[in-house]
Each structure stands twice: as structure tokens, then as C-alpha cells.
Design a protein that fits this description.
By secondary structure, the chain is an all-alpha fold. It has six helices and no strands. It starts with a helix and ends in a 5-residue tail after the last helix.
Length: 157
């Protein structure tokens, strides 16, 4: 029973999200810190690329976390902080890029590729079904005579 409890605790500890925020980076005001954490979860680490700056241990992510906290401490709103970071690093820094002309490929591309794949599979099976249903081409008169000679055992083709 103790082993099971230890295993459950170990699994729970492993399943907890890892935050790379250093206690020294945290703001004294819990409300501002909560806003900073909320913003940091939506900003991409430019080094790790699949982690938020809140989860990343990279130095650049740490710099961005500090920047976010500095902007919040200076009185910026959440949108102003995000706009400031986007103006410096572009839409790539957002984990959820906006739907606009420059990001249409990101949003629509997977659906277009999926639809193209479905069309290719549909065309493949349709062509395959068409080939199996096609009637065999009848033999010409010469081919029929030659086949009869071969079947009769004449041996001359």
C-alpha cells in the first residue's frame, strides 16, 4: 500500500506542469504576478519554440519573463505588454497567432492538406474500382486462333 501511494505521488509530481519561473523573477504583488504568468503562458520561447516562456529554462525566455514583469510593473495592460513583445519579435512569439493575411497558411494550411489527402485517397480508390470493373478486351480473331492452337497442343504459336 505504501508503494502504491509513493507511486501515485511520484506520478502526480511528474504530471505537474513544470514552470521555469525563478522565485527571484516573481513580482511582489500577487495580482501582477498572476497577470505576468497568464501572459507568459501565451508567449512562445524563441529558443525552444514549442514551450511557453513560462515553461522554458532558456536564457531568452527568462529575459522575456523579466520584460513582461517590467512592463506590468510600469503600469502597462496585458494587451500592451503582448503588443510590445509582438512588435519586437513578430507574431511568431505568440503560441496562438492571430488570424490575418500573414498567418492564413498556418490556420488554413492543415485543412487544405487534409482535404488534398482525402481527394487523393478518393481518386485512388475510384480509379482502382474502375479498373476492376472494366470488361476484359476481347481477343482478336488471330489471337483466338493462336490460343486454340496452343490449347490443342499443336505447339506452334
Amino acid at each position: 500500500m505504501r508503494r502504491l501511494a509513493a507511486l501515485v505521488l511520484l506520478l502526480l509530481a511528474w504530471a505537474m506542469p513544470a514552470a521555469a519561473v525563478d522565485p527571484g523573477e516573481m513580482l511582489a504583488d500577487p495580482a501582477l504576478e498572476a497577470r505576468a504568468r497568464d501572459i507568459s503562458k501565451d508567449l512562445r520561447c524563441l529558443v525552444c519554440q514549442n514551450q511557453s516562456i513560462d515553461d522554458s529554462d532558456a536564457q531568452l525566455a527568462r529575459d522575456l519573463r523579466v520584460l513582461v514583469r517590467q512592463r506590468l510593473a510600469a503600469g502597462s495592460t496585458n494587451e500592451e505588454v503582448v503588443d510590445y513583445v509582438v512588435s519586437r519579435y513578430g507574431d511568431f512569439v505568440l503560441l496562438k497567432p492571430p488570424f490575418k493575411l500573414s498567418t492564413y497558411a498556418l490556420w488554413i494550411g492543415p485543412a487544405v492538406i487534409f482535404a488534398g489527402g482525402l481527394l487523393a485517397v478518393f481518386a485512388f480508390y475510384r480509379r482502382r474500382a474502375g479498373l476492376s470493373e472494366a470488361a476484359p478486351v476481347p481477343l482478336s480473331a488471330e489471337e483466338s486462333r493462336r490460343l486454340e492452337r496452343l490449347l490443342d497442343g499443336d505447339g506452334r504459336a
